[in-house]
Known about the structure:
Radius of gyration: 19 Å
Number of strands: 16
CATH architecture of the largest domain: 3-Layer(aba) Sandwich
Amino acid sequence: MNNRPKVLVSGCFDELHSGHIAFLKEAASYGDVYVSVGSDATVAELKKRKAVCSEEERRYMLESIRFVKEVHIGPATGSVLDFAPLLDIIKPNIFFVNADGSSEEKRKLIESKGIRYVVSPGIGEGAGSGVARPFPNVTEEKGERELPPMTYTAGEQDERPWGRWLVMDAMPRSVVKKLTILPGNRISLQRHRHRSELWIVVDGIAEVQRDKQSFTLRPGEQIFLPKGCLHRLGNTTNTPVTIIEIQFGNILSEQDIERFNDDYGRDTDTI
């Protein structure tokens, strides 16, 4: 019998990034995490733009994160209190919120239901924020700030011989990409001088090489690639593989690639 407390968190979780992962990890330290994710209508109302990822895609990605037990799409109310109808369905013991997302309106609603209201003690921004928290082991090279800055823009996308990528979010020191690796394809064997990466498998089975090690990763599993390590991502199955790639560094560019082997005969100018 599971006696762990139920912890409810709420947010749009559009443009999923490392801050969201850190926030959900914090929430999981209090119990089993249940997520109320904002509907497409709520994203449009609160953010005044169309959602980058549909509500179903955002639910699927959140369900793939190991810190999350269950995900519900909130009613299309367009309100920051869109989670309210779920309180009587999920019956959480704790409502967990980041400092920026906390409000007296939320607190009064939660406490009127006899639910404990907990504000995240973590450093940095949490769910619903456009700023990612630094990922553990991400280091800053001395003098790196003098080099050219990030060149990605949110919404940028490109087709590659192995599949395609889409920039879901672009921030000063982190970029969130969605990679699709087509069946029987793989990216080049490469390394980066100025960035580290986190790969999270959303769908399919990914084959990963990191230096001399090989890994088979399934949905919900992840791997961290330190700056300077040799790495490669491949798909040996007959269905596409979807990866969320989070890049960290002061230089975030397609030019920061040193290629050692490529199935498609490309030079070092493109990934």
